[in-house]
Amino acid sequence: MPGFGRVPLSDIWAMLDECAPGFTKNERMHNWCIYYGALTYPSLPKGEHGKKNPEIELGHLKRLARHFGILDCARRCIPALK
Amino acid sequence: MTTITEKRELTPARWPLLFTYKSRVFGKGYIAAIELCGRLLAELEIEGVWLYGVNPGALAVGASNLKNANVDLHKVLTAVFADFAEVAASFSDFKAEVERFFRETDKESALEWDRLVQRLKASPTVEAPGGLPIKDAVRTKLSVWVSEQALDTVTPDDNRVPDGSAERSQLAAAA
């Protein structure tokens, strides 16, 4: 499961809608902070400055999905994770 | 086929790492000194290396090589702590957030880290990637330390130049 490669941020939000229902997010100075259940992922990069739908490296998505325990579901939603 | 398998055994693509981090962060009316000794899983890929957090778990750093990953690890952690400082109303809130971030991990990654350490212990001839030093995984205590600094402890030496940040973060293979 490679960490290099990119996915649009909108795909990550769609994946979380499917795999982490009820998740919430806050945009901070440097990163997105994502909350799911009792867990927090405060280090999702905001991506290239000024882009409406920036691309995020797969490694961040992979770690996020594993941290939230939703990796199998994330793989189904985003085939590049396989 | 056998050759490839043997090569993989000699130079594993996944490594258990330890890291140290030391920095200061400015918050709302306070200066916080942070020192960490944490765990990472390194995955070596053709394009470079990814560091995945174990403690702290909610962390990933990708770079072209381990030397750059070491520098980027410091930058990524400092950015996360700056974000914490942005929202924390007080030093105690900030401290609690850093400690929670450090301790939050997933069981699977922690077990994998332990398995990889055992594999390295069983292969004493394997050299750590990128010439990293090897630290004893049992004797090295994981730690998170956050303290409030008095203003008179700050000196011009605390002004960091961008490329000097690697001096405040250090990676080591764990065995």
What proportion strand of chain B? 25-35%
Which runs of chain B of at least 5 residues are low in confidence (pLDDT < 50)? 1-10
Report the sheet with the most strands of chain B, covering strand number, pairing sense and barrel closure.
7 strands, mixed
Distance between the termini of chain A: 6 Å
Beta content of chain A comes to 25-35%
**Biggest pleated-sheet summary of chain A:** 3 strands, antiparallel
Arithmetic mean of pLDDT of chain A: 94
User: What is the mean predicted local confidence, pLDDT of chain B?
Assistant: 87
Q: Give the C-alpha Rg of chain A.
A: 12 Å
Strand order of the largest sheet of chain A: 2-3-4
- The shape of chain B is elongated
Question: Biggest interface in this structure?
Answer: A-B, 23 and 28 residues
Q: Oligomeric form of this entry? A: heterodimer
| SSE string of chain B | HEEEEHHHEEE
N→C terminal distance of chain B: 28 Å
Number of strands of chain B: 7
Helix content of chain A: 25-40%
Task: Give the overall shape of chain A.
Answer: globular
Description:
The complex is a heterodimer of chains A (82) and B (175). Chain A has helices at residues 9-19, 58-67, 71-77, and strands spanning 6-8, 24-27, 31-36, 39-45, 55-57. Chain A is 34% helix and 28% strand. Chain A has one domain. In chain A, 38% of the residues are buried. In chain A, a hairpin with a 3-residue loop joins strand 2 and strand 3 (31-36). Chain A is globular and about 30 Å long. Chain A has 82 residues and is of the alpha+beta class. The model of chain A has no long low-confidence stretch (mean pLDDT 94). Chain A has three helices and five strands. Chain B is α+β, with helices and mostly antiparallel strands and 175 residues long. In chain B, 34% of the residues lie in helices and 31% in strands. Chain B has helices at 2-10, 66-87, 91-103, 107-121; strands at residues 14-26, 31-45, 48-55, 60-63, 134-135, 143-149, 169-174. In chain B, strands 1, 2, 3, 4, 5, 6 and 7 form a seven-stranded mixed sheet that branches. In chain B, a hairpin with a 4-residue loop joins strand 1 (14-26) and strand 2 (31-45). The A-B interface holds A 2-4, 26, 28-31, 33, 39-43, 57, 59-60, 62-64, 66-67, 69 and B 43, 45, 47-48, 50, 52-53, 57-62, 76, 79-80, 82-84, 86-87, 100-101, 104-106, 108-109.
